[in-house]
Write the structure tokens for this entry.
Amino acid sequence: MKSVSPSSSSSIMNHSTLAPPLSANQSDCPEVQLPVVLFFAVGAVSLLVNLLVVVAVVHNRNLHSPMYCFICSLAAFNTTASLAKTWENVMMVFAHGGHLDQQGSSALRVDDVMDSLACASFIGSIFSFLAIAVDRSP
């Protein structure tokens, strides 16, 4: 059995071809630029579809069972998430256009509120899915 001395193992380590470490804001993946209109289109479609679900459940008496109320709740949470994300995109467009101070305290507060609203909507969606699953189980 061949033994490796510490000096030979360190020379192996010194000749490795490791990439330099990345900082927190860097990535080795190429950046993909998507048009802002695409984000607004997806947000608008999501908003309209979820509002349509809420209106259908509220106005149709045949859809007033517990499962459809949970689906309506899910659509309401998704509507809130869509509004929060769309508002954040509007703020980003204004910031990149130079019309909004990104470092201002009011912009940071609005960003915190939008992030909190989005997180609460996602948690509400998860609980709505859970309620639908419990309601559907035999």
About this structure: The longest helix spans residues 105-136. The mean pLDDT is 80. The chain has four helices and no strands.
